[in-house]
Every structure is written in structure tokens, then in C-alpha cells.
Winged helix DNA-binding domain-containing protein
Amino acid sequence: MGDGPRYIGGAERRARLALRHRLAPPARVATPEAVADALLALHGSDPATVYLAVGARLADAAGTVPETDRALYTDRSLVRMHGMRHTVFVFPTASTAVVHASTGLAVAARERASLLKDMAKAGAPDAAWLKEVEESALAALARLGQATAAELARQEPRLREQFVYAAGKPYEGVHTVVTRLLRVLGVEGKVVRGRPLGSWTSSQFRWALAPEHAELPVEQAQSELLRHWLRACGPATEADLKWWTGWRVTDVRRALAAIGARAVTLDEGTGYVVEDDVEAVAAPAEPWAALLPALDPTAMGWQGRDWYLAPGLRPHLFDYSGNVGPTVWWDGRVVGSWAQRADGEIVWRLLAEEAGVGALGGEAEAAIGAEAERLGAWLGPTRVKPRFRTPVEKLLSA
């Protein structure tokens, strides 16, 4: 055996995914907190994704909704906030300081500068006025506990001020101060999404003050974020890390060096794992099936996806912006899609030819069917439609 970096092939990467992403039945966990800790971040742009991603990984999926509500809104052990790539995620509350310092600060500076620039172009009030309104809004939120944008504007009427954005351009529009300001405060780590107005599938949220956290040095936070992510998703390439974090490549390389990451050889080239994670990982004893939601953190975990998602599937499973739709998995590979029809039935379709895996056989179809029944059972009367629709999901749900 040579002294060079160890080779980790696609089969072992799929074994790691099955176990560390809590997808193989023996690896499933008991609580939403355990799911979030295993994955670090659950995509939150589509509210339903959080619950569907949790339910796919719980040993007892029947408690998905009440347990996730408890974690998000009662215990506040999970928090919905802006994170990497200016995307809304759900994180373990203990990770908020790391996420804020490692990825939020740079985005926040750009967002505030953009808001002030747009206001100035429109002849709107200046930065001092905005700061005064912001402080008033945060004080109102502290009094109310949680509030919608409209409720905050009743407390601080200046939040209703409007200004024209991109005047004279084809995409000209009118922005209200409260909408843009809450977005800025979100990426600055001052406010987070609170309980929705409707059910758990609703995208109309209240806002709440962000949980207090220590202010960490940026480089320390980046190292901690990268270490946690590599434990969940390693091995990964520099391109994967740059894409997932949204950092510059120099930040990625500095953080890799700081944590002593080990280089390994992948089919795509050089990858990295945390220092003590070089040893081989055995596959689960039995093949497994899963139905994962649109924007699931596993399906969206890497920029290079060919080792679990064949290129031929992309036109069927992604929308025009690169958002993945609902996916059917068999033993570590994406093999199809699923949807919920208006009557509640969970339907699925294998795309074996596009996935390049050939006919899957009766064992796979029976296991996928059982997962569809499991999902339908805990959804009950709830109807779920992905926020970002994909071609095959539209056909299945019709």
C-alpha cells in the first residue's frame, strides 16, 4: 500500500452518506435536534422541507410535526436564520454564533450597503433615519416577543415608507422599508424567523429577536463550521466547500489548514476529510430506500453530485434555478422522484434509465413503496406542494 492519499470511491461515499445523514433505517434518530446536529443545516427556504427532511430521518416519524414545532418554537433548540449563500436554514441554536461569524457578517455588510444605496438613489431618508427606525423596530419586537412585518409597522409607522427600486429599469419595483430592513437584520443575526401564521407548511412567518450568542473571530468560526460540515459530508472537494459555504477559495484553504484536514483521492480529484476520518467506512448491512423533499440537505449537499445523482436526471429533478425537487433514493443513489396528489396519495416514479442504474427489481420497489406509505401516514390530511416545482414533480402531482 502506498504512502499517498487514500482513495475513497463512490461506494464508500454513499455508505458514509447513508449513516451520517441518518438515512439508512438503523441510523435513524429520535429527535429533530439529532437530525439537525447530524446534518448541521436543514434547508429552510421552503418551510415544508424542514419537516419532511426531519421525518425522513426519525425512527418514529409519527411525531415529526409536534416534535419539530417544539424544537423550533418552544425549546428554541433549533433556529431558522440566514446562513450560507444568503439562504435560510434551520440550525442547532448552539451553532448560531459559528454560522453568523463564518458566513453571515460578510453577507450582512453587502446587504446593508445595498439597501442604503437603493434608498439613496430613490431619494429616500438617509442612514441615520434608517438606524433610528431599526432601533425602534427592534425595541417593538422585544416588547411583542414575536410579530409579523405588518404588526411591527403598526408599532413603528415609518416602517411603511416606500421607495422605488431600479427606477427606469425593466425590473423596476416598489420596496417597503420593513421588508428590506428585516432581511438585512436577518443576515446581521439580529432577528430570526418565528412561528408561522398558518400551519407548518406556511411561508408567512412572524419575526423574533435572535438568540444571544458570543461574537466569534471570523477565522475561528470558519474553522469550526468546516470541521462540523466535513464530519457530516466529508470527503468533499474544494469546489464543494466553496459552493456550500459561499466563501472565497482562500478562506476555504485557510480553514482546511487550520483544522488539519487530510487529503484523500476521489474520482473527481482531491478531496478532504477531518484529520481522524480517513479510515474506511462499511456500508449498512441492508440496502435502503428514502423519499427526500425538495431542497433536502443531502441532495443539495455537494456541488459535484455525480457519485449519487446521475447527470441524466438533472433535467427532470431540478428547476431552472438549480433547486432540486423531491427525490427517491435507493441504496445511496437518486433513482426517481415523488409527489403528493390532491387526494393525499404519495406517488413516485423511477427514472432508472436516466439514473444509469438499470432495472431495480422487486426488493427496491417494495422498499420505496413502504417509504411512501410511511410518509403518507405521518402527513395525514396535510397537503404539501414544493415551493420550487420541477418537471417530473408537476407531472406526478397532476
In short: Residues 309-397 form one domain.
